[in-house]
């Protein structure tokens, strides 16, 4: 299994198995990184520009999604951050309270760290969301990200407690009642 710099497990054998698409790929299969950040890597940007900014990992030369020339790991500027606000392991959904200092239920979990491919250092960011309980299990034990598990009872209790607070805030209470000095 992949390891974090501290030596703990990240819960997957191949981080790229958990990638749908790069954050920089548009719906048309174009590389947004080359257009917006190309000044950081002019050779890469020029190569993408020569092909109308086609992403070789997302779209093949014929414009079809099948037959892409690269794997996601071949792109020097690949990044994939999960945007779903639920734990990918147990399905617990985030419940954040506005103006609250409470610790979030979900934490960002990195699946990949610096690696070397053919003598080149790549720092691909591949992240997913795990609830605090699954996150600690993945890092501190044999648990895997793709295990089929139910949310921890403590996680459900915490989520329901936040839900109850939300509902109590939505109830009407006059300012006179709310701030009564009695």
From TrEMBL:
Any Pfam family:
DUF7097
> From what superkingdom does this record's organism come?
Archaea
Protein's UniProt name: Uncharacterized protein
Region annotation (Disordered) ranges: 144-182
> Locations of Basic and acidic residues compositional bias?
156-168
């Amino acid at each position: 299994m992949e390891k974090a710099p501290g030596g703990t497990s990240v819960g997957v054998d191949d981080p790229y198995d958990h990638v749908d698409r790069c954050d920089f790929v548009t719906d048309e299969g174009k590389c947004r990184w080359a257009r917006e950040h190309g000044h950081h890597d002019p050779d890469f940007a020029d190569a993408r520009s020569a092909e109308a900014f086609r992403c070789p990992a997302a779209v093949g030369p014929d414009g079809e999604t099948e037959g892409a020339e690269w794997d996601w790991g071949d792109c020097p500027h690949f990044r994939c951050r999960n945007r779903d606000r639920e734990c990918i392991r147990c399905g617990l959904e985030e419940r954040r309270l506005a103006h609250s200092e409470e610790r979030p239920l979900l934490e960002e979990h990195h699946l990949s760290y610096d690696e070397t491919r053919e003598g080149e250092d790549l720092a691909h960011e591949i992240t997913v969301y795990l609830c605090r309980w699954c996150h600690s299990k993945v890092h501190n034990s044999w648990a895997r990200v793709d295990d089929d598990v139910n949310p921890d009872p403590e996680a459900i209790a915490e989520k329901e407690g936040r839900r109850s607070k939300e509902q109590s805030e939505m109830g009407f209470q006059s300012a006179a009642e709310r701030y009564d000095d009695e």
